[in-house]
Amino acid sequence: VCVVSLVGFVMLCISYQPDEKTCVQFTVKLMYFLLSATGLVACVLAVAFAAHHYLQMTKFTCDTVLESCQCKLDTADPLGRTFVYQGAADCGSLTSMLNLYLLLQMALNLVAALVCLSACFVMWKHRYQVFYVGVRFYPLTVTEGQQQKV
Where are the membrane-spanning stretches (predicted)? Predict the structure, then answer.
């Protein structure tokens, strides 16, 4: 996302030529669009993984053992994965802080995904100005009163 913003600033510094008559302008616009699309995919994946970890964190059972917090997803499973957080004496504040961090990460990545989506939309709209949708409400033929006299 940072690289996309830097390419956007470079694109602002290039003198504008109508209809992309310079190779540099076309290359920068293409790179900006592709990086925005890649950033969109990366941000959506980051939201999905943070949401997955948040759901796992809500199901953890945590115990304080020797100045560390040990959390398990399923306490009945002896082979279940144990997450150990060293130097955390209070497991309640640790899990609440991690949940808040994951929620903040989801929100910020969602905002970044929306910014990348809007950048892709603006670039697409700039390139292809007209979207053909809907039905015409006026006839294609000229009526009797509007005919030109030759």
Answer: 30-51, 102-124
